[in-house]
Fold this sequence. Notes:
Layout: H1 5-13, H2 16-31, E1 37-38, H3 50-60, H4 77-91, E2 100-103, H5 105-117, E3 123-128, H6 133-140, E4 144-149, H7 158-164, E5 169-175, H8 187-202, E6 209-213, E7 236-241, E8 254-258, H9 265-278, H10 286-293, H11 302-319, E9 331-332, H12 341-350, E10 353-354, E11 356-357, E12 367-370, H13 375-391, H14 397-400
Helix pairs in contact: 3-10, 4-10, 5-9, 11-13
Amino acid sequence: MSISRQIQQAMEKGSWIRKMFEEGRRLASQIGPENVFDFSLGNPDLPPPPAFRRVLLEEAARQDPMIHCYMPNAGFDQTREAMASTYKNSTGLSFTKDDIVMTSGAGGALNVVLKALLEPGDEVIVFAPFFVEYSFYVTNHAGKLVIAHTGEDFLPDLAVLEDAISPQTRAVVINSPNNPTGVVYPPQTLVALAEVLERKSRVRERPIFLLSDEPYREIVFDGAPYPTPLLRYRNTIVVTSNSKSLSIAGERIGHIAISPNCEGRNLVSSACMFCNRILGFVNANALMQRVVARLQGDHIDVSVYQSRRDRLCSALGSMGYQFVRPGGAFYLFPKSPLEDDMEFAALLRGLHVFVVPGSGFFRPGHFRISYAVRDEVLDKSLDLFDKAARTAGLTRPAEKQ
């Protein structure tokens, strides 16, 4: 075999998201993009906020000496100071620039943290459904993924978590607002989760870290504040990016934020800086670091995503689909009308509608819709979702009465 057996197996398991996206692209090239309704990829479609273009042009025009040279592994001091100030203002915690490491997106950030924390065989607990690449990130660093299944509300089941924690548990990963469900973990869930982790950590030589993956934290609906785990659990490490909040996913700019209350705070920070380099990221993009440092508090118009959520939930609910109403992000994760979610995804695909089966997120029986799409795509697809529901034998609520 010309490549690693492990990678061969990983490629075969691969991401259903990318599979659907690539198939949608092939079909669009054959019949025209206007005839394909692709809800597979969580690719933010809104323009960046107006300030982004202005600041980008200003920073690109700078003529300072050494502006394009090497920098510290953790990133520019002024960028990290800006991030630390934002966290300090929002949480009241004593963040400094030394708690911030700039990274190549949230994926880069999570890989850096796992590299810094894991011994071979250490376990990392994730709550299903989850973004499939978590499994690859953990194995990248000789860890073992442990899946804890959530309830019907997609919130962590604390009894399941207790059973999943073992002497080898090193970290728990949460993602709120969640991909693929759009669920936002409420404060009471985070408090209960923290109580379990504190209790389990007290009887161990090493703490259990809570890794909070937060690229959607600026996309929360109905005027609700984002409940941060930083205020609930001291050993929290945030990994995030500006991909969704500024609609600049292709720029791959993110960061790590280590709670000032974290055990071994300075050592964890130093390890992340070191791992940023040895993993080959070295440091985050220089131009984007300068740009995002000046855009703290700026974000896309969340009301657009909220309006799409409302239209989609109203329409699909009237068709008989069942789902948990999302509190954030830009995803809906309905139950599949057919027991086999892949069969239902294929049914939709036959109508030129592309969704991701829940099996791709380790939650069979559901499917994910990404409504980061143009309004006309969403609106024109609704009749096709209804046709698929009727074909699958789904009953409208009005017909049940």
